[in-house]
């Protein structure tokens, strides 16, 4: 371990220009110090694994994200390595070295293993590329580390630490770019994105995740090649989009997707929010509003990044372009955009292969995001509050945050009024929750009790009776068993099925 810092200092110094500037010099020194601290806890196991491969006549290097993150002072629980060993050899070595191993990524040259709490993935030197009609990368193996690094997506990911020697390899000045906050490709951007078009999405993600500035040549290539993203599977696109959205600054990444035209292919509803603003500015910029809502929603998160909330904040108004109408007298309306938007959200998220729970939750939040605004127009009844809570269900905490975030007005008085109204609504919800089982509002009689009281078996009639009692429960609160039975009998007397029943009460079975 003692030799790591000098090696990093000497090799990276040789690759730098003679006078990079005092600020860059300090940034590089700080990065090296962070790397030493970040890697120190796992260094004995890294060196041990390196010796295993060296003894067998193979090279091994820690590579990519774990090296980059070490220079940023971040510790990676999963470590990526690259080697000249072919998968069969890697399997044999990791089987003997680790506590467990797996071959899930073997088709891509990757073998995984675990030793103690350390998880490693070792990949044979390789390159990936797509042909014009392919959705899956073609993998070919290489024979040297420098060649492998030259095929990496970006220079900040094209750094490696050779093991067990701890020699630092940085043939494309990735450390300098990382210190300068710049995202570049090892070769031409066009070649990199041709090899794997998903790298264009990663460029936006790294801007959001690491705060890196995308080099102009990368932006130009992304713009020119945006349509190539269509050959990448929806699942891979979704994963990158998720990582971008939960990053510290997703808005930076989203702007890159829109400005380069990538969003038009992966999330076309987002650039569609850039509605033409008429000269009288009769409505706000929906695109900028949505990005602001996203930022404001993030500020309300309490337990780390909330993907569902962030998706809902970004997409809650995507129904507006389809529902915009210019009214007589100069007004603009977006009637029922929340309903239209909920359907659009579900369709887009399904196309991106999001799981069903995520699709339903984000669509539901989109559908409900305007419900609160009726509260500010007049006092809601307790029934309306109950319905608000019941309709939101477990999404209520997110709906609270989304609704509060949706206020982007510059009118301070209006913003305070809306905030106070929502404070009042939340307080009423808590008061009702103390009085009733508000999180699970149910009728005072269950299905079995309904059937017993009416003398009927399972049927649609039972469902109608249940909904009737639920409506009463919403409107009037808990009734109690005696009053609920009386209400049910009164309802039943008005139903056509009751006249067909032999006896009192009664109804056809089934």
From TrEMBL:
One of its GO terms (molecular function) is metal ion binding. It comes from the Bacteria. Keywords: ATP-binding, Magnesium, Metal-binding, Nucleotide-binding, Nucleotidyltransferase, RNA repair, RNA-binding, Transferase, tRNA processing. This is Poly(A) polymerase. It is an enzyme of class 2 (transferase). Its EC number is 2.7.7.19. Pfam families: HD, PolyA_pol, PolyA_pol_RNAbd. SUPFAM superfamilies: Nucleotidyltransferase, Poly A polymerase C-terminal region-like. The keyword Oxidoreductase does not apply. Residues 286-421 form the HD domain. NCBIfam families: HDIG, tRNA_CCA_actino. Its cofactor is Mg(2+). SMART domains: HDc. GO terms for biological process: RNA repair; tRNA processing.
């Amino acid at each position: 371990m003692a030799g790591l810092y000098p090696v990093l200092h000497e090799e990276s110094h040789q690759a730098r220009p003679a006078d990079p500037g005092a600020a860059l010099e300090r940034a590089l020194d700080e990065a090296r110090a962070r790397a030493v601290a970040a890697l120190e806890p796992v260094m004995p196991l890294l060196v041990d694994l390196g010796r295993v491969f060296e003894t067998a006549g193979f090279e091994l290097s820690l590579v990519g994200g774990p090296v980059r993150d070490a220079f940023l002072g971040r510790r990676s629980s999963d470590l990526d390595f690259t080697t000249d060993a072919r998968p069969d050899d890697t399997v044999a070595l990791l089987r003997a070295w680790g506590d467990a191993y797996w071959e899930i990524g073997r088709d891509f040259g990757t073998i995984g293993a675990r030793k103690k709490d350390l998880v490693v993935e070792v990949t044979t030197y390789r390159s990936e590329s797509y042909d014009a009609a392919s959705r899956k990368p073609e993998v070919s193996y290489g024979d040297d580390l420098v060649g492998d690094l030259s095929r990496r997506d970006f220079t900040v990911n094209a750094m490696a630490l050779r093991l067990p020697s701890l020699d630092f390899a940085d043939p494309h000045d990735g450390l300098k770019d990382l210190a300068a906050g710049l995202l570049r490709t090892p070769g031409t951007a066009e070649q990199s994105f041709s090899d794997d078009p998903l790298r264009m999405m990663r460029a936006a993600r790294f801007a959001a995740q690491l705060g890196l500035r995308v080099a102009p040549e990368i932006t130009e290539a992304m713009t020119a090649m945006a349509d190539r993203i269509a050959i990448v599977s929806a699942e891979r696109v979704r994963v990158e989009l998720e990582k971008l959205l939960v990053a510290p600054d997703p808005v930076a990444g989203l702007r890159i997707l829109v400005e380069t035209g990538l969003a038009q292919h992966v999330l076309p509803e987002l650039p569609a929010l850039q509605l033409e603003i008429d000269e009288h500015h009769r409505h706000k910029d929906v695109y900028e509003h949505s990005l602001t809502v996203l930022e404001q929603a993030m500020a309300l998160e309490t337990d780390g990044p909330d993907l569902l909330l962030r998706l809902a904040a970004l997409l809650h108004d995507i129904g507006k372009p389809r529902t915009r109408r210019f009214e007589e007298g100069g007004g603009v309306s977006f009637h029922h955009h929340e309903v239209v938007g909920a359907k659009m959200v579900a369709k887009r998220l399904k196309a991106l292969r999001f799981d069903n729970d995520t699709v339903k939750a984000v669509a539901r939040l989109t559908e409900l995001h305007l419900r609160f605004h009726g509260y500010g127009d007049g006092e809601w009844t307790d029934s309306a509050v109950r319905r608000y809570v019941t309709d939101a269900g477990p999404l209520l905490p997110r709906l609270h945050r989304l609704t509060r975030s949706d206020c982007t007005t510059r009118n301070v008085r209006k913003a305070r009024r809306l905030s106070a109204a929502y404070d009042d609504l939340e307080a009423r919800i808590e008061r009702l929750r103390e009085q009733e089982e508000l999180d699970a509002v149910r009728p005072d009689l269950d299905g079995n009790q309904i059937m017993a009281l009416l003398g009927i078996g399972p049927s649609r009639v039972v469902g109608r009776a249940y909904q009737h009692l639920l409506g009463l429960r919403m409107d009037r609160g808990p009734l109690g068993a005696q009053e609920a039975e009386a209400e049910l009998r009164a309802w039943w007397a008005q139903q056509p099925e009751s006249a067909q029943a032999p006896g009192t009460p009664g109804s056809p079975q089934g």
